[in-house]
From TrEMBL:
FAD-binding PCMH-type domain sequence ranges: 93-274
Sequence positions that bind FAD: 125-131, 258-264
Signal sequence interval, chain numbering: none
Cofactor: FAD
Record GO biological process: lipid biosynthetic process
Protein's name in the database: Alkyldihydroxyacetonephosphate synthase
Xref: PROSITE patterns: FAD_PCMH (PS51387)
Binding-site residues for substrate, renumbered to this chain: 385
């Protein structure tokens, strides 16, 4: 993973001249006056951990698995939000951990947490490092140091229960590795978020991830049937049956907790048989409202495709629905729907039934071309962000969800807030996940950088968070809370809700060492 950007540096490409011209003429984007810092120019704080603490950590996991070198510290600094990348491109490594610790077992994680609690060392659980909500920046005040607890060594497929269609997997396994191991058994999770190439399964659970094929396979939290969690107070082993009426489901306390309550060390997950066939196709609707009505019909009455996405007029026009063709000519006006069908013998019949519904509601079939283009470029958008940042544009994403009846109000509220904060930005949106009761809205914002682009975006983010809460949406559908959404999350759940979460944290983490400052204040 590129330390100051996304993914494989070899996949990043400079923007073509026509796109640079469009950014200049349409948004006033100008190249930054100061070039991005090199790796060797990153400014790191002096490591705060004492030799005694480092020695104790090495005694737990082995000397080779405690790293305090600059390379390890830089690569475990923050996540991959636009503000995170802006700071790194400016050479600001002030949030770097003092050391990176790589445990190799649940027992070692337990011992590490007990040692860090005893020495008041903050612990940031680290998977793929793909958080885009400030979920990897610990509050330092009151702590003797900060360590990144990297789970990369916990990366096994432990067991496969083919009869129950349940597997046990360790949390540090990256999604592509997991899919390769499952494929050997003819299985899949069916979880393919945009972060798929780099994120870990433990991160999916900790942030309540939702993949691009959620219409067919469900969200990641739907897949979790059991968890083992290490806390400073001991072990939680949760989930022993498909469903239970034995009180509140404590798995839900851990899912979405972003490492603030404990460290997930094992996952029991529901899997599906790997599909024999995958078909993706495009449809055009005259408007976002018409396309939304069609998606709602499929979500409520069926048949529901495995993948179902709708881009608004702006996103369709710009071509962001097909990242590999960004800026290319768009022959058809309106809004693009991507429908994907995965399975075996049932795919043809499901596709035909869905086509009847879509056509009956005004959809125009575009054939497999747009769908195949989307599938080919489905993980490419973060690379485009890196290219835009290099040209002097601020580009960021944000997402929410709401009930169908409230979706137009939520859509308008976010767009109005962004225009009020940023002047005349380019704002694009798509529906990325659908349910019988509602859907998500995923926005991409592009604007020219001001003299202080960090302050520019942080002001816009505060305003749009407030607008989402006021319009009745959730502050996050699949990115999590982190630090960036913490105040808005508190407004969403109310004072009593915050007290409940503080009570849980106080019991599981009395010294407050686990990812302090994330999720709740």
């Amino acid at each position: 993973m590129l330390w100051s950007g996304w993914g494989d540096p070899a996949k990043a490409a400079a923007l073509p001249a026509p796109i640079r011209g469009l950014l200049r003429d349409m948004l006033g984007v100008r190249a930054p006056e100061t070039p991005a810092a090199s790796f060797g120019e990153v400014r790191l704080p002096v490591a705060a951990l004492s030799p005694l603490v480092l020695s104790e950590l090495r005694g737990i996991v082995g000397a080779d698995h405690v790293r305090a070198d600059d390379d390890a510290r830089i690569r475990h600094t923050r996540g991959k939000s636009t503000p995170d990348l802006m700071r790194m491109r400016a050479g600001d490594g002030s949030d770097a951990p003092d050391a990176v610790v790589l445990p190799g077992s649940h027992a070692e994680v337990l011992e590490l947490l007990r040692a860090c609690a005893a020495h008041r060392v903050a612990v940031v659980p680290f998977g793929g490092g793909t958080s885009v909500v400030g979920g990897l920046v610990a509050a330092r005040q009151g702590f003797a140091g900060v360590v990144a607890l990297d789970l990369a060594r916990l990366n096994r497929l432990v067991s496969v229960d083919a009869e129950s269609m349940v597997v046990e997997i360790e949390p540090g396994l990256r999604a592509p590795q997991a899919e390769r191991l499952l494929a050997e058994h003819g299985l899949t999770l069916g979880h393919f978020p945009q972060s798929f190439e780099y994120a870990t399964l433990g991160g999916f659970a900790a942030a309540r991830s939702s993949g691009q094929a959620s219409a067919g396979y469900g969200r990641f939290d739907d897949m979790v049937v059991g968890l083992t969690v290490a806390t400073p107070r001991g072990t939680l082993d949760l989930g022993r049956a498909p469903k239970s009426a034995a009180g509140p489901d404590l798995r839900q306390v851990i899912l979405g907790s972003e490492g603030a309550f404990g460290v997930i060390t094992s996952l029991r997950l529901r899997v599906r048989r790997a599909p024999a066939e995958r078909i993706y196709e495009g449809w055009r609707f005259a408007s976002f409202a018409a396309g939304s009505a069609a998606l709602r019909r499929l979500a409520q009455d069926g048949p529901l495709p495995t993948v179902l996405r709708l881009s608004d007029e702006t996103e369709t026009m710009i071509g962001l629905a097909r990242p590999g063709e960004i800026g290319g000519p768009v022959a058809d006006a309106g809004c693009l729907v991507i429908a994907g069908f995965e399975g075996s013998s049932e795919v043809a019949a499901l596709r035909e039934r869905a086509a009847t519904v879509l056509a009956g509601l005004g959809g125009v079939p575009l054939g497999p071309g747009p769908g195949e283009s989307w599938a080919h470029g489905r993980y490419s958008a973060p690379y485009l962000r890196d290219s835009l940042l290099a040209e002097g544009a601020t580009v960021e994403t944000l997402e929410t969800a709401g009930f169908w009846s409230n979706l137009p109000r939520l859509y308008d509220a976010v767009r109005l807030s962004l225009h009020a904060s940023l002047g005349s930005p380019l704002v694009m949106c798509h529906v990325s996940h659908v349910y019988g009761t509602g859907a998500s809205l995923y926005f991409t914002v592009v604007t020219a950088q001001s003299a202080d682009p960090l302050a520019q975006w942080e002001g816009a983010k505060r305003s749009v968070n407030e607008a989402i809460v006021a319009a009745g949406g959730t502050i996050s559908h699949h990115h999590g809370v982190g630090r960036d959404h913490r105040e808005a999350y508190a407004a969403e759940i109310g004072d009593l809700g915050v007290e409940i979460l503080r009570g849980v944290k106080g019991r599981l983490d009395p010294e407050g060492i686990l990812n302090p400052g994330v999720l709740i204040a």
